[in-house]
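anyone seen this seq b4? input:
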Amino acid sequence: MKLTNFLSRRGVIAGATMLGLMMTSSAAMAETIKVAGIFTLPVEQQWISRIHIALNAAQERGDIEYVYSENVSNTDYERVMREYAESGVSLIVGEVFGLERAARKVAGDYPDTGFLMGSSFKPQEPNFSVFDNFIHEPAYLSGMVAGSASKSNVIGMVGGYAIPEVNRLMNAFMAGAEETNPDVKFIVNFIDSWYDPPKAKESAFAMMDAGADVMYAERFGVSDAAVERGAKAIGNVIDTSGDYPGTILASAIWHMGTTVDTAIAGVAGGTYSAEDYGKYSFMAHGGSSLAMDESLVSADVAAAVKAKSAAIMDGSYTVTINDDAPVSNN
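predicted toks r here
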């Protein structure tokens, strides 16, 4: 009897100890990572929205606590970065095009904070990682659709700025269009703004006046012009086919989930370091895809696009990355 009571008591003590350890472990695992987003444009803007969606999804899963600042001017960006770093966040995500030097200085001052930034340049040890929207693969596929759809053999292309992030998408698109239509020509213009729909729309009108019947809508405003003139359009980064039914033939879609989730896992596991996350935007990593309205595309073209997509995915076809500024050839 005494032995039984003694063993029971030991069992209670052992059980209580194990329960305590389990509760401590669970509490540690339940501790979420604090992440801050810093954006120079509204979170509704197409490029920024993809990052914002991925971070919100991580928060909804309980992986992170997410806060953000939008419409941050370049002159305020460094200050906001420092404020978030001082507040104790573990990871700061944003874009630093045009303010590389200041952003990298902040990262150097806070080596225990992870920085994941949209950038045209290389990572910086020990904690400054970079990413970019490498969606040239679906851009090529969307070009195949556009080339086959053009009856005038003229495609208009309106971009924001002639920087590598935009150039590589436009060049891939042009190469795809030439695959299905060797006679196609291009009218290219950059509006020198990330968000000026009226200016983009006017540029698109001018291109359609010059004969373009398919428009590459790298910026907002182009698809509106296409609707008004009865032309077709190709989307970029997000799928706007629901907003422009019967107009958007296809869109190259960017998915930031893999990029963001990989960085979060690195912070959580204590393995985060300065890396180039660009590859996580490739199709094989689930970082990009093509949305195609097959009701507007012939069966033969849709089949060719799907075959090329499969070749990209299995590595038997590689889309060339060309960061040079594209030019008109009409």
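The CA atoms of residues 127 and 273 lie 5 Å apart. The radius of gyration is 24 Å. kinda curious what u guys think
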